[in-house]
Amino acid sequence: MIREMEILKYWEQYLLKNNLNPETKYYEAMYFGMTEELANSLLEMVLSGKKKATASSLWAFEKEKLPLPKVGDLSIVTDWAGTPYCIMKTTAITMIPFCEMTFDICKREGEDDTLESWREGHGKFFTMEGEAMGYVFSEDMPVVFEDFEIVWK
C-alpha cells in the first residue's frame, strides 16, 4: 500500500509540473526483469539512456487479459521494491515472431551485443515466464517490441 501511494504521488507530481490534465491515467507501473538484481540493473540502463526498448510475449498479455501498449502510453518505471524512478512514453510498437527478430531491432534494448545473446537470454526469460504464466515458449511466439523514451526523472 505504501508503494501505491508513493507511485500515485509521483504520478501527480509529473502531471502537475507538466501542466497535464489531472485525469490522465498511466498505462502501468512496472519494473523490468524477473529478479531483483536484473530489475535494478535494467532500471540503471533505462536511467542512463542505454535501454530504450523492451520485449514482451504477446501470449503473456493474452494470459493476463491485459491491453497491449500503444504509442503515446505513459508508464512509471520502478525498481524491484516498487519505488518510482522515471516515466517512459511508448514511441513505437513492433510485433514480430521471436524467430524473426533482428539485431537492428533488439539492440535498442541495450542489453546484448549480438542477436545470438539476445535470443539465448530472452529465450530463457520467455521459457521461465511461460512456465509461471501457463504458456509454452516457442520460436514462432509473437514478441511485442516496445520502443520508449524517458519523459520524466
Can you tag this structure with a few keywords?
153 residues, alpha+beta, Sulfate adenylyltransferase, 5-stranded mixed sheet, 5 helices, 39% helix
Show unreliable segments.
Answer: none
The total of helices stands at 5
The top level CATH class name: Alpha Beta
Number of domains: 1
Beta content comes to 15-25%
CATH homology group: Sulfate adenylyltransferase
Radius of gyration: 16 Å
Task: Explain the overall architecture.
This protein is of the alpha+beta class. The protein has one domain (2-152): Sulfate adenylyltransferase (Roll), CATH 3.10.400. 39% of the residues lie in helices and 25% in strands. A five-stranded mixed beta sheet has the order 1-3-4-5-2, sandwiched between helices. Strand 3 and strand 4 form a beta hairpin.
Quick structural gist:
With 153 residues, the chain is an alpha+beta fold. It is built from 5 helices and 5 strands.
Spell out the blueprint of helices and strands.
Layout: H1 2-17, E1 28-30, H2 36-48, E2 53-57, H3 58-64, E3 74-78, E4 84-97, H4 103-106, H5 115-133, E5 142-152
Parallel strand pairs: 1-3
Antiparallel strand pairs: 2-5, 3-4, 4-5
